[in-house]
Amino acid sequence: MIPDYPLTSDCLDNNQENRPDKPEEACGVFGIYAPNQDVAKLTYFGLYALQHRGQESAGIATFEGETVHLHKDMGLVSQVFNETILQELPGTIAVGHTRYSTTGSSRKANAQPAVVETRLGKVALAHNGNLVNTVQLREELVRDNINLVTTTDSEMIAYAMAQEVNAGFDWMQGAIKAFHRCQGAYSLVIGTPVGIMGVRDPNGIRPLVIGTIGENPMRYVLSSETCGLDIIGAEYLRDVEPGEMVWITEAGLASYHWSQQPRKKLCIFEMIYFARPDSIMHNESLYSYRMRLGRRLADESPVDADIVIGVPDSGIPAAIGFSQASGITYAEGLIKNRYVGRTFIQPTQAMRESGIRMKLNPLKDVLAGKRVIIIDDSIVRGTTSRKLVKALRDAGATEVHMRISSPPVTHPCFYGIDTDSQDQLIAARMSVEEIKKQLEVDSLAYLSWQGMLITTQEDTSNFCSACFTGDYPIAIPEQVKRAKLVLEQVTV
Ligand code: SF4
Questions:
Q1: How far apart are CA 176 and CA 190, in angstroms?
Q2: Is the pTM of the predicted complex or chain greater than 0.70?
């Protein structure tokens, strides 16, 4: 039985067949306060840069004084918007959202931003992350006769804020009261008629950065990642801190540290895989970090071979690092079809059997007769990896050695990433030796947990790495754990 309450905003995927064997990001958020600018178009391009964080749906809400203009739909940013639609979104403030792609039923109603009415005007909210107290919050809202129209926790946050504002608090106070009712991971961009907010939860699990645009210091941008700033020519100012709310109005940018117990617990998977390699986190490009992961991996788990290849795109920087550290030649052994988007059309049985060649095609000239080291950033279920290894052998590789630039994923994520339930995770069910046999590789090694964290050059306690350890920085209610398991069982 599927639970009758929303487990998460975004982590439900009803079709295992079409699922990539990778953790999947939940959302990208973007916002801009820029009088006399085409805020809708700037937001469009910001979302375009954040497309990797979610491909199910996209939406933009703009504020023209009290009036909210909203357009959201299923599909990629480039499919949802065109010039005509963007021209119908005037204003000085914009909030944008891209949502993680579920492959099951179309759920346009769950697209964001969520727009809710308050006594002070409308609020438009875009959310990246997942609450873990959705059951309790939903019960509170339903008890108060709030008519929730979607199954997202994001709408609940918007209504919680509306409740507080309607109780007499101003925008800022009302928002902070609402955040104290929310537990879990949330990076938020919230538009109002008078200003825009950027918020991170007290653990700062999902990223959010602030930028400025143009000569006028009153123009601010909020984005999940710095690549959303780069694309519109905005300058990176700083990160929104864990437990901080920035409130941007005509008076400028004000900062409120609303949580008594903030701590840094950025999702380490953002660094390893989710965020774009050209984004900056902790003052360095993620491309550099991922190369260092590869170097560390080569030091920890050397192997004799002829070439090193990476699984495009996310395994490439670590493969280059591995090559540099080991002295083994780096080569492109897999070509990615860059124009493949998410398809809702089921492949034929023959195509299914050809598996990963929908997206990746091995280069026989490069691989034939070679002992190959293949580097990937993670293994979740192992299904794609197995097909990949077979494809390399079919292309003539004489040995296939797999190296993974992160530790084994043994626990599910409840903070906005779809990593499957525990029983679906290959490393939760099998030892490394068993996985090696399952994938039919000549050798297999993962990066150590310490190696992954030390390579960040940050205080190693500044990250959430719960999917590798089970040490969750925010307690997960048993009800939520059970619900995730039930959902996976009914959808497999
Ligand atoms: S559990 Fe894993 S994927 Fe989820 S936030 Fe923590 S590190 Fe990231």
A1: 12
A2: yes
Task: Give the chain's mean pLDDT.
Answer: 89
DSSP class of 271: I
* Whether residue 27 lies in the annotated active site: yes
**Closest residue (by CA) to atom 2 of ligand 1?**
467
Q: Per residue in 445-473, pLDDT tens?
A: 999 999 999 999 889 999 999 999 999 99
Determine if ligand 1 sits within 6 Å of the CB of residue 205.
yes
* Alpha carbon distance 306, 400 (integer Å): 10
- Asked whether 286 lines ligand 1 (CB < 6 A), one says no
Question: Which residue's C-alpha comes closest to atom 7 of ligand 1?
Answer: 465
Ligand 1 binding pocket includes 417 (Cβ within 6 Å)? yes
Tens digit of pLDDT for each residue in 371-391?
A: 999 999 999 988 889 999 999
Could you tell me the distance, in angstroms and rounded to a whole number, from the CA of residue 412 to the centre of ligand 1? 8
Q: Is the shortest distance between the CB of 465 and ligand 1 below 6 Å? A: yes
Q: Whose CA is nearest to atom 4 of ligand 1?
A: 413
Catalytic residue among 27, 267, 413, 464: 27
Ligand 1, from 464, 465, 474, 484: best to mutate by most atoms within 8 Å of Cβ?
A: 464
Q: Are 270 and 468 in contact (CB under 8 A)?
A: no
